[in-house]
Amino acid sequence: MGIDLAFDDEGLDKAVRALAEDGDATAALELVEGEGDAHRREQAVSVLGAAGVNEIESLRALAARQSYRPERWLLLGAALAAAAWGVREAPGRDKRIDRRIIAQKALVAESRTALRRAAALSPGDAVPWSELTGVVIGAPLHATETADVFKRACVLTPGLYLAHARHLVGLTRRWYGSPDRVLAFAHARVEGRPDGHPLHALVALAHIEGYVDGVLRGTTVGRFWRAWRYFADPVVRHEIDSAANRLLAGPDDHPWSMSAHQAFAAAYQRAGDLGRARAHLLRSGERAAVWPWRYFGDPGSRFAAARQAALP
């Protein structure tokens, strides 16, 4: 799935390189451990999980060696979750699909176990529950697990960006939800947020999901028509513009600020509004978030193309 690089944190950069290139998890575990600053740790765990997909065996060994350390289970669980999403998205012929499903299910089951172990060892930490929001989307053990996991994350630390973004994805039609549920969730969770809060981006993410939903259904002509008119709808544009203004009105002092601006940049890029996209790209950093660019191709390439088109 790739590593989300929409952050400005030298320590996290160094930990990513050490883990992904050298297989050294020392710096990664230092960033992951503890219960402080859940917003920053939520981002670090997600990023480092993706960086650790090729080091799962060594991460298993680290967790087994000191099984009382929650950060070891947390990093392992995040790496397994990232690997499961990678298996799901990997291209392949029909004969490979059954093997991919089996492999994904095994990774999801192991990830769930590792993350729940981390949560049990550190009961005041919301981050294992945030990671679980992405794990349980496609394979809930019971009817309420998705909602229960998200609620637990929010009780421990309200307003976690990635927990909300992942839960929003789980409400889409392809996960047996609906566009109406996605929008209702975004509206409810944005209400009352201060200017500059990254959760304003839920509105952009919800409408990107609506756009994607339209281009995945029906005939070629129908998909083209829905794609062409989605962002031309004045109600859609008013909602996106209002939320964008709220994000732009505040400071970019949150770990997820760059990702939030990139969500709006992607929406405006799809809408063909380079002026609006520019305002967010100027505050998005120079490296791509994985989502929502991943819907439209390679995230790095899509982000670079948007920047080239919109920035002088």
Explain what this protein looks like in three dimensions.
The protein has 312 residues and is mainly α. It is 68% helix and 0% strand. The chain contains 16 helices and no strands.
Query: Class by helix and strand content?
Result: mainly alpha
Mean pLDDT metric: 92
Low-confidence stretches: none
Reported for the largest beta sheet, the result is: none
Q: What is the subunit arrangement here? A: single chain
Number of strands: 0
From the spread of the alpha carbons, the general shape counts as globular
Output the number of helix runs.
16
Termini Cα gap: 30 Å
- Strand % is under 5%
Order of helices and strands: HHHHHHHHHHHHHHHH
Helix content: 55-70%
Radius of gyration: 19 Å
Spell out the key features of this protein.
312 residues; mainly alpha; 16 helices; 0% strand
Q: SSE layout and pairings?
A:
Elements: H1 10-22, H2 26-32, H3 38-51, H4 56-65, H5 70-89, H6 94-121, H7 127-135, H8 145-156, H9 161-170, H10 179-190, H11 201-215, H12 220-230, H13 234-248, H14 257-271, H15 274-281, H16 299-310
Helix pairs in contact: 1-2, 1-3, 2-5, 3-5, 3-7, 4-5, 5-6, 5-7, 6-7, 7-8, 7-9, 8-9, 9-11, 10-11, 11-12, 11-13, 11-14, 13-14, 14-15, 15-16
